[in-house]
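Pipeline run #58 for the internal structure catalog. This entry was flagged by the ingest filter as a single-chain record with no existing model, so it goes straight to prediction. Upstream metadata was stripped on purpose; only the residue string is passed forward. Reviewer on rotation: M.T. Logging verbosity set to normal.
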Amino acid sequence: MVFPPHARRQAERIVETFPRRRARVAAWLGVQPLRHPRIYLVDNHEQMQSRGGTGVPEWAVAIARRDGVLVFRLDRVDRTPNQSLDLVLKHEVVHFVLADLDRQPRPRRLPRWFEEGLCVRHAGVAYVEVDTTLERMAAAGHLPTFAAVEELFYVNQRGAAVAYKLGETVVAEFLRRFGDDALRQLLRAFAGGKSFAAAFEEATGTRLDDFEERWRESVTPALPLLLFVMLENIELTLLCFGALLVVGGYIRVRLRRPRELEQLDNS
């Protein structure tokens, strides 16, 4: 491990907890790590790029390279609850273990949305919060397909946030329907050389396209978009409705007063 002197406390926490975290993730995924990590704690994005490559986005908190290198940004770690060192480490350990699926002559990687979904599921929270809900996107017809979501990781922070959330919900639905044993079987088949779609079908007995269709149905509200948004923000909707009633009552009184005065004059 390489770290600046002021980061000794964080370095000690990583050294202390990494072995048991790795063992726990390896047992969950059924993947045996074959390498030891090389861990770098760096002060900023520029230093992260020097260790991880120029393609590292500015908003990145940590990265896990496929060769076992882990890099943590000290100016981001422990700055928010979502980016505490413990949660970041839990997330990156999943990447570290999954890197050992690359046992083929040509490196192979799980679809990023699925791998990130596993990481977020294990950590319990994503680094970046999405500013909308998948249900709202689905109601508006903007929910991306599995194939399209891969590109969202590279667009901007908002796109990545949506992609992380989508991956998390997909993995949650997978585990709910098929369980951990199916996940381990999928990973074994994928490590053995099958495509992700073929490994998915072998492990679950369900075609990936059929699973995606059912997942999309599960997150798509049955209500029209406007009604869904109103119910999603029920307190604001009731407040606006109450304000309209007040304004309507005021206008009604103002319109009725001239008629009442006219009736008094004629009586």
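catalog note: Residues 224-241 have pLDDT under 50 and may be disordered.
catalog note: The longest strand covers residues 38-42.
status: ready for reviewer M.T.
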